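Worked problem 6 (solution included).
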Amino acid sequence: MPTAMAASSPSTPPCPPLPDDVRVMSPDPKPALRRQARAARAMAFAAGDESAALAVCHSVLAQNLVPAGATVGGYWPTGTELDCRPLLHALHDLGCWCALPVVVGAAQPLRFRLWQPGGILVRGSAGTLEPADGAPELLPEIVLVPLLAFDATGHRLGQGGGHYDRTLAAMRGSGDPINAIGLAFAAQELPRLPATHHDQPLNWIVTEASVRLITEAGARPLLSE
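Solution. The predicted structure is:
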């Protein structure tokens, strides 16, 4: 009687290599980068927010980044964002039309309403201060953009809502030239930020230490320590 042979398991063939056009999915790095950026910005804010705000204001005016009479979309600072109010007051004095952003929906571009010194501001749906209903809407040709972090290619890291990306995309899609000027502390710069086709780059980055024009070849310093 023949003895029973134990059945051997067939060996598992090796997995074929992935095609070159297939990317391995990795966790989104932006949440961790936002935590890092918030901490860096908080430290810079505590070290000298007022002096940085005045330095940024001086640099924007000295480099004539905003011509007299231009329509400018600014922002009212929240938390540890660099304070652009000195710049808004200076631009108003130069005859610029200044506006502040209004959040109209979670997936909608921002709208901008006229701001004037002493004007009434109300708490909006996103918790930021904005001009009250009834203030005229303006279409900026220059947008002052707050941020959590930036890199030398002009990409920015925001809060994650995508409001400025949608806004700049809509403005640029209309065919009108739009200058997006990122305002930040120098300490908010990171070596490189992850970017997708949805992310809208900045045209300029102004910190208390430098003014940089962003070109296809990279950042070109116009003023630096």
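Discussion: The first helix runs from residue 30 to 62.
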